[in-house]
Model the fold of this input.
Amino acid sequence: MPLLNAAHITLGLMIPTLGVQELIVILLIAVLIFGGRKIPEIFKGVGEGIREFKGAMKKDDKPTAAHTEEKKEAPTHS
Done:
């Protein structure tokens, strides 16, 4: 039985890593299924979705007016 290190164990589960050969096989299957012309459109859609998700996450991280008023009203210790 091979020894495992922390890179191979995540939350107690073994998650295999994908090598170059596996990625090439997946890409070839995707080209066969969707066709060469459709692949760039798919990646463009995925990229736009990721950008929208990141934008929504940044929007949620900004403090609201209620948060800034709470900070102003909080007593300071001198």
